[in-house]
Amino acid sequence: MVRSSDDNDANKSLAKKLKDAEISLPIVYGNIAFWLGKKASEYQSHRWTVYVRGATNEDLSVMVKRVVFQLHSSFNNPMRVVESPPFELSESGWGEFEIAITLHFHSDVSDKPLHLYHHLKLYPEDDSGSMSVKKPVVVESYDEVVFTEPSESLLVRVQNHPAVVAPRLPAGSLPPRILG
């Protein structure tokens, strides 16, 4: 395929970084755990899911390529890679431990992964001493991942995505050229 100089100029413009602009990705990461009841095995007393999702449960795959969950070394295959949404992992066990969560972004978003840490919580905080099979334990953290100076192409791609907070553009337009 032969490209005209106009095509090359358009490609350069799409790869151009936007100074003084930023894209924010609000995320929630955490776990939900269910006690399996008195008949459960002592080593499999809970079923739990650890996750990373949009702040109001949106699909993050517009920005996130994959998520790696590093479980306790006592698990078979403790490093788990989730390549597509939902970015979550379910297991069963009896103990609480720290889970390292690494977000890998698409190449036009960032070449640096983001490392998060979450303490898996299985048991309720209150001292009543009674666990219920009906009431799960939920522990979540909210954060906003901010990407500075995004490319024009990334901004166009995520412009109307519900998981992403990006500067709004007029319909059908690219951001204005920033002279530097």
UniProtKB/TrEMBL annotation:
<dbReference type="GO" id="GO:0005634">
    <property type="term" value="C:nucleus"/>
</dbReference>
<keyword id="KW-0539">Nucleus</keyword>
<protein>
    <submittedName>
        <fullName>YEATS-like protein</fullName>
    </submittedName>
</protein>
<dbReference type="InterPro" id="IPR038704">
    <property type="entry name" value="YEAST_sf"/>
</dbReference>
<feature type="domain" description="YEATS">
    <location>
        <begin position="17"/>
        <end position="161"/>
    </location>
</feature>
<dbReference type="GO" id="GO:0006355">
    <property type="term" value="P:regulation of DNA-templated transcription"/>
</dbReference>
<keyword id="KW-0804">Transcription</keyword>
<dbReference type="Pfam" id="PF03366">
    <property type="entry name" value="YEATS"/>
</dbReference>
<dbReference type="InterPro" id="IPR055129">
    <property type="entry name" value="YEATS_dom"/>
</dbReference>
<keyword id="KW-0805">Transcription regulation</keyword>
<dbReference type="InterPro" id="IPR005033">
    <property type="entry name" value="YEATS"/>
</dbReference>
